[in-house]
Amino acid sequence: MDITGNKVVLRAIEEQDKEMFVDLIKDPQTAKVTKGYSQPVSYDRQIRWFRSKTDSVNGVHRIIADREDPHAGLGIIILSIVDQEARSARICLKLMRAFRQKGYGEDAVAALVSYAFQELKLNHIYSHILEYNQASRRLFEKCGFQQEAVQKSRVNEDGRSRNVYVYGISCPLRLSKNGNPSMASRIS
Ligand SMILES: CC(C)(COP(=O)(O)OP(=O)(O)OC[C@H]1O[C@@H](n2cnc3c(N)ncnc32)[C@H](O)[C@@H]1OP(=O)(O)O)[C@@H](O)C(=O)NCCC(=O)NCCS
């Protein structure tokens, strides 16, 4: 089932997404801010793995596309349920550079978070963000996430340690009045 936001649709991976998917994984600048792969990997294997996880008990793996032109993939978004008992999941997304700072990221996160709280009955969603990833920090703050923790010296790079910020959001439906009002209005 597609997940539809105001601006985006989050759909399953399709054949035409292969090039976008490979470019995204290969992009060294994106790999630097997400600590992903920048080295060659088996892309066919990655794509098969991503497709197999479109909707699984362990989460959701989707292509971010524009609602007006859903054929063209703009990026990927992943929700991994890390604790089934606590109903807690980790979220991560990557957009092609040409489609950044146009509101796609914010709408994709908001749509997936609403879906996760309403349909998957999750209680808590979080993201790990490297301290210098200003774009990601701002994006999650705009979506109602709050800084919950700082993990010291988790990532070492060029001999320097980098802090990792944990940003999280709890389901407003399962919270008292302290729930996030912007997300509550999206859900109701
Ligand atoms: C992080 C990322 C997904 C943001 O998506 P996006 O579509 O560009 O973000 P949006 O256009 O929805 O912007 C949301 C907010 O973040 C701000 N923002 C976006 N990029 C920014 C940047 N480079 N620097 C500062 N703020 C930025 C926007 O200005 C907006 O805030 P505002 O309305 O107050 O101005 C995108 O930059 C990306 O794919 N980065 C590489 C991968 C990554 O870092 N993923 C996150 C780790 S899981």
Structure description:
Helix content is 30%, strand content 37%. With 188 residues, the chain is of the alpha+beta class. Strands 1, 2, 3, 4, 5, 6, 7, 8 and 9 form a 9-stranded mixed β-sheet that branches. The radius of gyration is 16 Å and the shape is globular. The model is unreliable at 176-182 (pLDDT under 50). Coenzyme A binds next to α2, β6, α4, β7 and α5. Coenzyme A (COA) is lined by residues 30, 33-34, 92-95, 100-106, 127, 129, 133-136, 138-139, 142.
- Low-confidence parts lasting 5 or more residues at pLDDT below 50? 176-182
Q: Return the CATH architecture.
A: 3-Layer(aba) Sandwich
Global outline: globular
Bound molecules: coenzyme A
In the CATH scheme, the class would be Alpha Beta
Remind me, CATH topology?
Aminopeptidase
Radius of gyration: 16 Å
Beta fraction = 35-45%
Number of strands: 9
SSE ordering: EEHHHEEEEHEHEEH
Helix residue percentage: 25-40%
Describe the structure concisely for a colleague.
By secondary structure, the chain is an alpha+beta fold. The chain contains six helices and nine strands.
Task: Please render the helix and strand layout as text.
Elements: E1 3-4, E2 8-11, H1 18-26, H2 28-34, H3 43-52, E3 55-56, E4 59-66, E5 69-83, E6 88-95, H4 104-118, E7 124-130, H5 134-142, E8 146-157, E9 160-170, H6 181-187
Parallel strand pairs: 6-7
Antiparallel strand pairs: 1-2, 2-4, 3-4, 4-5, 5-6, 7-9, 8-9
The site of coenzyme A has 23 residues, from helix 2, strand 6, helix 4, strand 7 and helix 5.
